[in-house]
Amino acid sequence: MAKAANKDLGEIIQMREQGKSLPEIKTELNLDKEQIHAEMKKLVDEIHKEIRKAN
User: Fold this and answer.
1) pLDDT digit string (tens) for 3-55?
2) The dihedral sign for the CA sequence 37, 39, 43, 49
3) Residue extents of the structural domains in the chain
4) Residue 4 to residues 24, 29, 31, 38, 54, Cα–Cα distance (Å)
5) For residue 28, which of 3, 52, 5 has the smallest C-alpha distance?
6) Is the Cβ–Cβ distance between 23 and 1 less than 8 Å?
7) Which partner for 35 in 4, 7, 17, 54 could form a disulfide, CB atoms 3.0-4.6 Å apart?
């Protein structure tokens, strides 16, 4: 979420600590589901790549 919104992860964590839900944060940062999904897919792909390198 932080990467898709070009925000610091600390800002997202601070919003959560203030009691905001993930959907509220998503709305506040003007993110849509596709943007978040694209960043998640990149992360999963990188994890798979690292796992393959380790084996």
Assistant:
1) 999 999 999 999 999 999 999 999 999 999 999 999 999 999 999 999 999 87
2) positive
3) 9-54
4) 15, 9, 8, 8, 28
5) 5
6) no
7) 4
